[in-house]
Design a protein that fits this description.
By secondary structure, the chain is of the alpha/beta class. The chain has a single domain, classed as Rossmann fold, CATH 3.40.50. It has a five-stranded parallel sheet with strand order 2-1-3-4-5, with helices on both faces. The longest helix has 16 residues.
Length: about 140
């Protein structure tokens, strides 16, 4: 399975990658740093060439060129391609309105990035676990 991380913050990319590798789950992690790159990577023409469709997309809300909500909406507009793909928002926002908006747009779950390093590791573990399972985390 492929996990696609859409994140622009180098520190968050480093931490996610480190804890992902520590899990040893055998999935491929692809990192893209902005919405344009992500949407190109997920384009229908590219995926029709028998490219693997990510099973899990981990998406930040605050990206440089467009919001994670805009990206989420565009991905869900291609439901025929991404019906089985879980999209989890992983962001610094803890606003209830952002959580509700993500759910309304079709996010599988919403995690606020923890400040504590051990909690960050646990969040990455839960996110990756949810990529392989059907149970939602309670956060």
């Amino acid at each position: 399975m492929e996990i696609l991380l859409i994140e622009d913050n180098q520190g968050d990319i480093f931490l996610f990658n480190m804890f992902f590798n520590k899990l040893g789950i055998g999935a491929k992690l692809t990192v893209l740093k902005d919405g344009a790159s992500a949407l190109e990577y997920l384009s229908e023409s590219r995926l029709k060439k028998d490219e693997e469709i990510p099973g899990l997309i981990v998406l930040d809300v605050n990206l440089p060129d467009q919001s994670g909500f805009e990206i989420l909406s565009q991905i869900r507009d291609n439901q025929h391609l991404f019906n089985e793909t879980k999209i989890i928002m992983f962001t610094s926002s803890s606003e209830d309105g952002d959580k509700l908006r993500a759910k309304q747009l079709g996010a599988y779950d919403f995690f606020t990035k923890p400040i504590d390093i051990s909690e960050y590791e646990e969040a990455v573990r839960l996110i990756c676990y949810m990529g392989y399972n059907t149970h939602r985390a309670v956060v």
